[in-house]
Amino acid sequence: MHDDTRDDVVVIHTDGGCRPNPGPGGWGAVLRQRQHVREMCGGESGVTSNNRMELTAPIMALEALTRPVSVHLYTDSTYVRNGITKWVLGWERNGWLTAAKQPVKNVDLWQRLQNACARHEVEWFWVKGHSGVDDNELADVLATRGMTEAIAAGVAI
Q: Which HAMAP family match (predicted)?
């Protein structure tokens, strides 16, 4: 079992999505360390995808950390968790081609996520979406806010 109560661990919950998919999208992240809480969100008013928003959320959260730390990162995206923990090294080794020799989708974000992870000691956890996990629910609310604000602004944030 993972111990999210250790003082030196930053616990991050992330979420992202689009309505429709593809379409405008948003991402959200909740970062906690001891009593400190930071909420982040952003979005894209143009055409993006659920997967791009699910990837953007942990990138933005990890890039916001000012010093190297231990991170427990929770996502409800199996695409993100499996990609970063299982697939990405093979893709990199194969010149960013899939096993079927097709270009990896979202390669720009996978590379950025790798770089963001490199500064930290990150453990990845999958959490079932909409299952009553408070910070996962909050990350979902933040992702919706990010999308709504991006649409209202009419530009990428």
A: RNase_H
Buried b (16+ CB within 10 A) or exposed e, 68-80: eeebbbbbbbeeb
Model confidence at 129, pLDDT cuts 50, 70, 90, reads confident
Cross-sheet strand order for the sheet of 121-126: 36-48, 23-33, 9-18, 70-75, 121-126
The answer on whether 54 is annotated among ligand-binding residues is: yes
CA distance 106 to 115: 14
pLDDT tens for each residue of 16-74: 999 999 999 999 999 999 889 999 999 999 999 999 999 999 999 999 999 999 999 99
Distance CA 140, CA 17 (A): 8
* Domain range annotation of the chain: 10-156
pTM: 0.93
Nearest to 139 by CA among 61, 50, 39: 39
Please tell me the total number of residues recorded for the chain in this structure: 157
Query: Is the pLDDT confidence value at 157 over 50?
Result: no
Ligand-binding site membership of 76 (annotated) = yes
Summary mean pLDDT of the chain: 93
What residues are labeled active site?
Answer: 15-16, 54, 76, 130, 140
